[in-house]
Design goal:
The structure is a single chain. This protein is an alpha+beta fold. It is built from 5 helices and 7 strands. Strand 6 and strand 7 form a beta hairpin. Helix 2 (about 20-35) crosses helix 3.
Length: about 170
């Protein structure tokens, strides 16, 4: 696991721990569902069908991430002993890459995402590497990444590959 500074995040009271057991996996699955459930708003399924679909999608994503990013850090984000999000990050020889960063709805818009990004940027700068992420075009994240100095390097339809260099 990479050893990040997390100075700003710690000042906000955020803590990070590895995803190590089934309870953690269930939690990061709930984070996934909280991010994508709005996309199913107009789908004519009942709540149970939507929940089942999101569970299947999360399992596929989780398997894909585990298979394609075996050296990544899989972290649960906590605030005052309450789990509030997930952070998946991978350190490559030529860059640090944010695989996923997501917070539960009640914790969004409170500065936690920016604090985590700034800590990741500081760590990347410290070791002389750029920081990259795949950022959805819809939602508030794109504006945050751009405000922090990330630039688009590739358009992937619903998302853009963004890159920051110190």
């Amino acid at each position: 696991m990479a050893q990040f500074g997390w100075e700003r995040s710690a000042k906000l009271g955020l803590r990070f721990r590895p995803v190590v057991d089934e309870d953690d996996v269930l939690f990061v699955g709930r984070v996934y569902a909280s991010v994508f459930k709005d996309m199913l708003e107009d789908v004519p399924w009942n709540d149970g069908q939507k929940a089942y679909f999101l569970l299947l999608q999360f399992r596929k994503e989780h398997e894909f991430y585990q298979e394609n990013h075996p050296e990544a850090d899989w972290l649960v984000v906590s605030f005052r002993d309450t789990d509030v999000g997930r952070l998946y990050v991978e350190c490559h020889p030529d860059e640090h890459h944010i695989i996923d960063i997501a917070l539960m709805p009640h914790f969004r818009g409170r500065g936690a995402g920016e604090a985590m990004l700034r800590d990741l940027m500081d760590e990347a700068a410290r070791v002389g590497k750029p920081l990259s992420a795949e950022v959805p075009k819809k939602g508030r994240a794109m504006a945050l990444y751009r405000r922090l100095g990330f630039v688009s390097t590739d358009d992937h339809g619903a998302s853009e590959r963004m890159r920051w260099e110190a």
